[in-house]
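Why do we bother with holo predictions? Because pocket geometry can differ from the apo form. Keep that in mind while you read this record for S-adenosylmethionine.
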Amino acid sequence: MIDPFGRPITYLRVSVTDRCDLRCVYCMSEDMTFLPKAEILSLEELERLCAAFIRLGTNKIRITGGEPLVRKDVISLFRSLGTRIGNGLDELTVTTNGTQLARHAADLHAAGVRRVNVSLDTLDPARFTAMTRWGKIEKTLDGIFAARAAGLAVRINAVAMKGVNEDEFDDMIAWCGEHGFDLCLIETMPLGDIEGDRTDQYLPLSTVRSRLRQTWTLTETEYKTGGPARYFTVAQTGSRIGFITPMTHNFCESCNRVRLTCTGTLYMCLGQDDQADFRRILRAGATDADLDAAILAAIAHKPQGHDFVIDRRSQKPALARHMSVTGG
Ligand code: SAM
Ligand code: SF4
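The structure, written out:
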């Protein structure tokens, strides 16, 4: 699958649910309305779509959400996709908030998962509860260490928020180094209505990196995980730190991915509205050939890139849909 700008599309992110057991302040509002179950694809429908993408050249799939591990029986999806590793699929990964990871880490590893991204924005228990509105840090930490014990490589994802967790990045680099985790800092993106002002939260990672350089020796590497992060090694710890900078550095020229939501909508770009409705196609009785043709037609409409802006007057986000819908 090659898009109109010559980019091979080899990476599919699949959101398996819009539901979550946390309410991170930058991601959701406290009283989120979730979708009716009938609108959500069954695990069999999700698997069928993933199989079509693999048939057409997708070699990496990341399962995300919402919180993917709160979906009932989600491990069966990992198991069935795992059988395709080495048979079209090179890698199956997951992004999770870690709360259910202690329960699922061994099963994920047995299914063929080797790397997990776990979101952890702070090491401070009270701050964790404030940032997630009610989460307990112990559950996520238990999940992280269970993942490591099960043989999964862990990358910690932290959204950088001005005045909230920016004083902790040195501690987080040291902690990740101590435990053998990579760390990835992410700029906040204006996706979906939350309560409050997003322009107040935004912290450019170019500033963060210059600050970190006062303490740490950072050397840029060629390391890539298929996503948009730019990685540096931290000489003092031997671990890596990645930066995802959708706002300060647009990475669209090397974009290799599309996103499938839990309702079967394929978004060609995280920051644009171009989409295709695969639930309608599936439920109308599409054959495999119909699915393949519909996927290729959708890829032919992948836009060149995104341009996130916040309407400063109305304070409305660039896009109405939340990250938990499209899948991070
Ligand atoms: N629940 C899982 C988790 O938190 O890892 C998976 C879904 S979550 C939407 C995926 C990633 O998106 C997380 O690392 C989260 O921090 C990030 N995220 C959510 N909203 C964001 C926003 N507005 N800007 C930047 N990153 C965001
Ligand atoms: Fe849930 Fe992940 Fe969004 Fe936090 S970032 S509210 S854990 S989906």
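The first strand starts at residue 11 and ends at 15.
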